[in-house]
Sequence to fold (412 residues):
Amino acid sequence: MIAQWRKATAAACAGLLALAGLAACRPSSSSSEKMTLTVWASQEDQADQNSWLQTMEAEFQKRHPEYAITWQNQVVASADAATIAKQDPTVAADVYTFASDQLGTLVQAGAVGQMSDDAMAQLKKQTAGNPTMVDTVTASDGNVYGMPLAGNTWFMYYRKSKFTEQDLTSLDAMLAKGKVSFPLTNSWYLASFYLGAGGTLFGPNGTDAKSGVQFGGETGAAVTNYLVDLRANPNFVNDTDGSGLAGLKSGKTDVVFTGNWDAATVRENLGDDWGVAKLPSFTLNGKQVQMKSFAGSTVYGWNPYTKHPVAADQFAAFLSSTYSQKAHYTMRSVIPSDTELSSDAQVAKDPVAAAQMETIAQTSVVQPSIPEMNNFWSPCENFGKSLYNKEVTHTNAAELTEKWMQSYKSLM
Fold:
């Protein structure tokens, strides 16, 4: 059983000595517990002495003079953490960053520790009104492993001169006025229509493998029929290999769906005519249905094999604290997941940050992290290709939607 550790009481400040990649902090108190903590983080977060990670380590030491910490920083990207940690958790870092879709693998490998009561109190405050962020770090056993540092999802960019504010709430209204580029053949995006209509992946919280993929039935068939019409709309453009972004520059597209990673390109391609917003709704059986994107997070967690579990839990929580997330945004422009920061003056005036935070809080569902999710992507992509290639029609929409659902039963 993975122990749940309680946070020790923080105290006043202490001295700091930092070296590149290795920082030694030695408070004056002779009773301080000496320890070495190995930390995995991205190259960008620890590039030099003044980088975000080293700055947060110095701040953590100031807040915890009960520890005398030698920091051992190593470059391991969040996308690679689970692959490395699961091989031998006993030699993995004490604290490390990982992508939330790796949570199930890490829990299964016993490589990530359950967060303490104090960390849970912090998480509750930071995710008020945003249950999706809590779901990104909640495993199938209902416990929380890790703390979200930053969110990850997609939303909408558009040509402002084409649309009114009211148009932006409706995909159909935008299709009536401009060219809408959407990645119909990409599983990460296609699912948004079925999720918006009430479809589920592995239960309501994405953790029940036995529940499987539920995009079928009458509602699923109705969504498929909507997508048949979407494909046939002369203002629809399938977005592949960056064609949507290129179309913004050439004038061939007016709307694209992507994430914060493409913000600079959108601004460059549209100049002062660029806009960004959360996801729109679409018309299903005469009613407006909200599109819902997958959302995940970049997480900091701690290794249950650490020799210093209390400090490791505290530091993982601190790296994802409101203080650290604001510093991360200021130093590296990484959009925070903390809902408290949505009203921060600096963050609030950033339209991309606002769109991402609103999308995650209001129009998203958690991207499941259980291993069974790996079997979702290919059949969904193939169905999207069938839609795009006009193999799916109004005549066979219900039948092919059910065949798609049946294909998952042999995989799960």
Notes: The chain has a mean pLDDT of 92.
